C-alpha cells in the first residue's frame, strides 16, 4: 500500500514539475556541463600521468559512474529529504504533518525531478569503463548484474546518510553546513579511490559517513579482486544497517519536533 501510494505521489510531483518544460531542459543541460567538466579535469590529469597510486583511468571512471548514478537515484526518489531545513525554518513541515500519509513519505515525494543528465552520464561512464576493463580481461559479464546491485545498495546508503543528516535538523534546525560535510564533500571525495587519502579520512568515510561503501569497497572486490565476496556482502549489510539506523534516528527526531504553531 505504501509503495503504491508513493508511486502515485511521485508521479503527481513529476507531472507538476514537467509543466515548466524550459526550466527542466535548461537545468538538465547545465547539470550535464557541470558533471562533464568535473570529470574531464580528472581524466586529463590521469591521461597525462597514467594512473594514480595504481588506479587506472577506467577504474576511477567506474567509481565516478557508480557514485553519480547512486546519487541521482537517491535525489530522484527522495528529493526534499535533502531540503528539510527549508521546511523547518518556514514551518511548512506542519502542512505535511496534517496529511493522511506518513511525514517521510510526503517529504520524499515533494518536488521530485528526474535527473536524466546524471543518470545518462553515469551510464556512459560505466559503459566506457566496463568495456575497456572487459577487453583487458579484468572483469567478465558477471560484473554487469553486480554493478546494478552495487548501484542500488549505494543509493540506499546515500539515502540513509541524507535522512540521518536531515533528522539532525529537528535539534539543530540549520543543517546546511552539516550537509556540506556529510553529503556534498564526502560524496565528492568518494568519487576517487579512498587509498589516495590519509588513514584518518579513510576511516571517516567508511565509519562515520560510510560513503566508501557506495563504490570503493565493492569496487575493490569487483575490479581488483581483493577481499573476496565478503566485501560485497559487507556492502549489502552496511546498506541495510545504515537505513535501519537512519529510520530510527528520523523517528526519534520527528517525535521531538516542535510545531511552529505550538
Automatic annotation (TrEMBL):
Keywords: Membrane, Transmembrane, Transmembrane helix. InterPro entries: ABC-2_transporter-like (IPR010390). The chain crosses the membrane at residues 21-49, 55-74, 114-134, 146-172, 200-223, 229-247. It comes from the Bacteria. It holds the Pfam family ABC2_membrane_6. This is ABC transporter permease.
Amino acid at each position: 500500500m505504501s509503495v503504491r501510494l508513493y508511486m502515485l505521489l511521485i508521479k503527481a510531483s513529476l507531472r507538476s514539475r514537467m509543466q515548466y518544460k524550459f526550466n527542466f531542459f535548461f537545468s538538465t543541460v547545465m547539470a550535464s556541463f557541470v558533471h562533464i567538466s568535473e570529470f574531464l579535469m580528472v581524466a586529463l590529469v590521469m591521461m597525462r600521468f597514467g594512473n594514480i597510486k595504481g588506479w587506472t583511468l577506467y577504474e576511477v571512471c567506474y567509481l565516478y559512474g557508480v557514485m553519480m548514478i547512486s546519487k541521482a537515484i537517491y535525489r530522484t526518489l527522495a528529493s526534499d529529504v535533502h531540503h528539510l531545513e527549508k521546511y523547518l525554518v518556514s514551518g511548512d513541515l506542519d502542512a505535511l504533518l496534517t496529511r493522511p500519509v506518513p511525514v517521510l513519505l510526503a517529504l520524499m515525494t515533494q518536488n521530485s525531478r528526474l535527473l536524466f543528465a546524471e543518470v545518462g552520464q553515469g551510464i556512459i561512464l560505466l559503459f566506457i569503463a566496463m568495456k575497456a576493463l572487459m577487453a583487458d580481461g579484468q572483469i567478465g559479464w558477471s560484473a554487469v548484474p553486480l554493478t546494478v546491485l552495487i548501484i542500488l545498495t549505494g543509493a540506499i546508503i546515500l539515502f540513509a546518510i541524507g535522512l540521518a543528516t536531515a533528522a539532525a535538523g529537528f535539534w539543530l534546525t540549520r543543517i546546511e553546513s552539516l550537509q556540506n560535510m556529510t553529503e556534498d564533500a564526502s560524496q565528492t571525495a568518494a568519487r576517487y579511490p579512498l587509498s589516495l587519502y590519509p588513514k584518518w579520512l579513510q576511516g571517516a568515510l567508511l565509519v562515520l559517513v560510510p560513503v566508501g561503501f557506495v563504490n570503493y569497497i565493492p569496487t575493490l572486490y569487483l575490479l581488483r579482486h581483493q577481499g573476496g565476496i565478503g566485501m560485497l556482502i559487507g556492502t549489502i549489510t552496511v546498506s541495510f544497517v545504515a537505513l535501519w539506523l537512519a529510520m530510527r534516528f528520523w523517528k526519534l527526531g520527528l517525535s521531538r519536533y516542535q510545531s511552529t504553531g505550538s
